[in-house]
Amino acid sequence: MKPLFSLFFLFSAATIPVLTQSVDSGVYVWATSPISKKTTSKQRTLLEGTTTDFKHMKIHATTLPAHQAPHPAHKHDDEELIIIKEGKLTVTIEGKTKTLGAGSVALMMPGDEHGFENKGDTPVTYYVMRYESKEPKDLERGKKAGGSFWVDWDEVAFKQHDKGGIRRMFDRATAMTKRFEMHVTTLNQGLWSHPPHTHRAAEILLMTDNSAQESIDGKLFSATKGDLIFLESNVPHAIQNTSQGSCTYFAFQFE
C-alpha cells in the first residue's frame, strides 16, 4: 500500500497542472491554434506560459454567437485585457456598461466584477489576455492609475506620420504592471517600422490587417491577419510590411 501523502501528491499533480514552461519569442498562428467548444462559445488558444514578468499568461480568442454571454458576471484575482477583433461586444465593469466595436479594448483589474454579452444579431470575436505578475499585485497602484477601463476605437484619433500612422490607446500602470502601454500602428507598404532594437519590456504585436514579417533575434518570421507575435524582454526585433498596401497591428508593452 502506498503512503497517503504519495497518493495525494499523485492526485494533485494530475489534477492541478503547474505551468512552468516559458513563452518563446515568435509568431503564434491564428489558423493553426487549437479550438475548443464551450457551452455558449468557441475558444481558440494562442499561447500560454510564463514570461520574465508574469508567472502565468494566457491569450485566447473567444467567438460568441448572437444573443449569448460566455459566462455570468464574475471576478478573479488576475488581470484581464480584451481586444475586440470583429463584431460588437457589450462590456459591463463594476455596474457600468458600454457596447464596443472592433478595435476597442477593455482592461479589468483584479477583483473588479465584469461580464460580456453579445446583444447583436451576428457573432463577435475578441481576444482575451489574462496574466498574473511574479511580483505581488499592487491594487493601490492600479486604483491610483484609474482602475478598470475601456477604450472605444471610434474615440481614438489617428495621427498620420511619414511611415503611416498611429493610434495611442493607453499608457499607464495597473495592479499587475508598473507600466502597460498600447498603440495601434498602420505601416505603409514595404517599410520597416524601425531598425532592429531591444527594450526591457516584453511586447506583443497583434496583426489586424494584411501581413508582415518580423525579425526576431536575426531570423525572419511571417505573420498575417489574426496572428500574434510575442517578443520577450531584451530580444532584438523589428517588423516590415510585406503586403500590397498598408498593414495594421496592435503593439503593447508591459513590465
Question: What do you see in this structure?
Answer:
The N and C termini lie far apart (49 Å). This protein has two helices and 20 strands. It has helices at residues 4-15, 139-144, and strands at residues 26-28, 35-37, 42-49, 54-64, 79-86, 89-93, 96-100, 105-108, 114-117, 124-133, 149-151, 159-161, 164-172, 180-187, 202-209, 211-216, 219-224, 228-231, 237-241, 247-254. It is mainly beta and 255 residues long. A seven-stranded antiparallel β-sheet has the order 1-18-15-20-14-13-12, with no helix packed on it. The chain has two domains: 22-148, Sandwich (Jelly Rolls), CATH 2.60.120.10; 154-254, Jelly Rolls, CATH 2.60.120.
What distinguishing features does this structure have?
255 residues, mainly beta, Jelly Rolls, 2 domains, 7-stranded antiparallel beta sheet, 2 helices, 20 strands, globular, disordered N terminus, RmlC-like_jellyroll, GPI/OXD, Cupin domain-containing protein
Mean pLDDT, rounded to whole units? 93
CATH C-level class of the largest domain is Mainly Beta
- State the helicity in percent bands: under 10%
Distance between the termini: 49 Å
Class inferred from helices and paired strands: mainly beta
Domain Cupin type-2: 63-128, 185-250
Organism: Spirosoma aureum
Protein name: Cupin domain-containing protein
InterPro entries: Cupin_2, GPI/OXD, RmlC-like_jellyroll, RmlC_Cupin_sf
Short structural description:
With 255 residues, this protein is mostly beta strands. The protein has helices at 4-15, 139-144, and strands spanning 26-28, 35-37, 42-49, 54-64, 79-86, 89-93, 96-100, 105-108, 114-117, 124-133, 149-151, 159-161, 164-172, 180-187, 202-209, 211-216, 219-224, 228-231, 237-241, 247-254. It is globular.
